[in-house]
Amino acid sequence: MKDSAHISTLQTPFAPLCPQDAENPQCDKIKCTGSTEFRRTASICMEQTDTVNNFDSFDEAASRGLPTVKAYSAQCYSCLKWRLIPTKQLYEEIRQTTTANPFVCSRASSWHPQASCSEPSDLTQGGGLLWAIDKPDIPLAPAGWERLLCFRAEGSGKFADVYYKAPTGIRLRSMREVERFLAEHPEYVSAGVKRNQFSFLRPKPLNPRHAKRRTSENSRGMRGSISLTQGTR
Question: Quick one: which of 19, 55, 177, 207 could link to 172 by a disulfide (CB 3.0–4.6 Å)?
Answer without folding.
Answer: 177
